[in-house]
Amino acid sequence: MSERKVVTVTTAEAKRQNDIMLELAQHLQDKELKYWLQTFGCQMNAHDSEKIEGMLKKMGYVKANSENEADFILYNTCCVRENAELKIFGKLGHLKSRKRKNPNLMIALCGCMMQQDIVLDTLKKKYNFVDMIFGTYNIYKLPELLQTRFETQENVIDIWEKHEHIVEDLPSIRKHNFKSCVNIMYGCNNFCTYCIVPYVRGRERSRELNDILDDIKKLVNDGVVEIMLLGQNVNSYGKTLTPPLNFANLLEHVAQIEGLKRVRFMTSHPKDLSDELIEVMAKYPTICDNLHLPFQSGSSKVLKTMNRGYTKEDYLELVSKIKLAIPHITLTSDIIVGFPDETEEDFEHTLDVVKEVEFISAFTFIYSKRTGTPAATMNGQVDETVVKDRFNRLIATLDPISARIMNSQIGKTETILVEEISKNGNNIYSGRTDAGILVHVELPENKIGQFVDVKITSAKTHYLNGELI
Ligand code: 5AD
Ligand code: SF4
């Protein structure tokens, strides 16, 4: 795949797709078609799915109550780990017989998994009942692909090897009306040796500052109070822009948008996190006191073969600097166990980092071999039972630390943004503190989307209970 430095933002293309949406909406208006969209993987995919839903709605589709009653089933796929892929193939197995019984059922697959030749070949050979396949770069073309499918009555496969432009101004359905994600960049240039993302999401390209700020201002006018800035590596934001800009500059602009109460961002790569960013985070109260800072492994040897660009000591030093500047910060992380050639000693370095940093929580992963990545052909793949044992020991180290931090919150007063009705019972709502901690609280009325003050009364490993004050 070749590198592209210049990004064309095309509103002309958005207009073309919008016109097709209106045409299709007219064509489909009496049919009352229902869609079912299932999203796998990360927040980036979830955000792409909001755009897909926005387009489907504009074309006249309404959301089905279940997959069984849908006329159009879409899976937005993930390929970061093998499990995610196996789930999709499992689901396709079920859909095959449904499609046989109802040939009018439309099935579409999109997202990261589709960007791999090996997957595409399997789909063509074994799953040729899938009506539409598209990738990560051309989601905005859904209306046109659907139109082609209707007109030709043939399966449509459209996978691009690289992205051509960032298309702005497409409709989108937001899951929440009080908080929203905003993409600031796409792709990744880091090529961590275990990771498939750079191959399926392409090279890094940043959105223009003003496009991002305009988006956020519109959202705030619409009632949004919390924004999550999204990128595979937000710390390298702006490098592809002319003149270049950095993430600290962008964040400072966002933090000052009137009416916006909270800004979060993910994901930060430790090697690119600047002192300037730490200063900006410490300066603006709108920037939440939480940082997701994946370290992946605590062993400098493993980090080197992972191509992460920092050592254990670099990471710990960075964390000390952050904690000094922002004392109330909570840290979260991604950790991989069982990377090729990981020894017991390497793994103990990972446990060291966990103990020293005291993460409030972490996403823990068993290394999964991804065809096409350098790690897939590395020697020293670790025995499954050894990996499982390490994984369990990792959780057993993380959990008591989480519990201890959670317990230390008891008695404090916290402002939470109420997000949803909790599964824990009647009138119990859940929300998050500035530091991102989940809190359950009983409320006399629905306050979703509002800030309330609560006193923390008890703690579990991964959430707190509070009382309204
Ligand atoms: N195996 C296991 N975990 C992986 N991740 C990415 N690729 C792999 C892989 N091949 C994890 C990393 C990353 C997170 C999004 O997924 O920890 O930070
Ligand atoms: Fe994957 Fe590394 Fe890029 Fe994250 S920074 S998306 S782990 S290659």
How would you write the strand order of the largest sheet?
Answer: 3-2-4-5-6-7
Give the termini distance in whole angstroms. 57 Å
Q: Which regions have little confidence, pLDDT < 50, spanning 5+ residues?
A: 1-7
**Count the strands?**
21
Q: What would CATH call the architecture of the largest domain?
A: 3-Layer(aba) Sandwich
Mean pLDDT: 93
The residue fraction in helices comes out at: 25-40%
What is the overall silhouette? globular
For the record, the CATH class of the largest domain is Alpha Beta
Question: What's the structural domain tally?
Answer: 4
Helix/strand class: alpha/beta
Named CATH topology of the largest domain: Rossmann fold
Biggest β-sheet, characterized? 6 strands, parallel
Bound molecules: 5'-deoxyadenosine, iron/sulfur cluster
CATH homologous superfamily annotation of the largest domain? Methylthiotransferase, N-terminal domain
Q: For the CA atoms, what is the radius of gyration?
A: 23 Å
Strand proportion: 15-25%
Counting DSSP H or I runs of 4 or more residues, the number of helices is 13
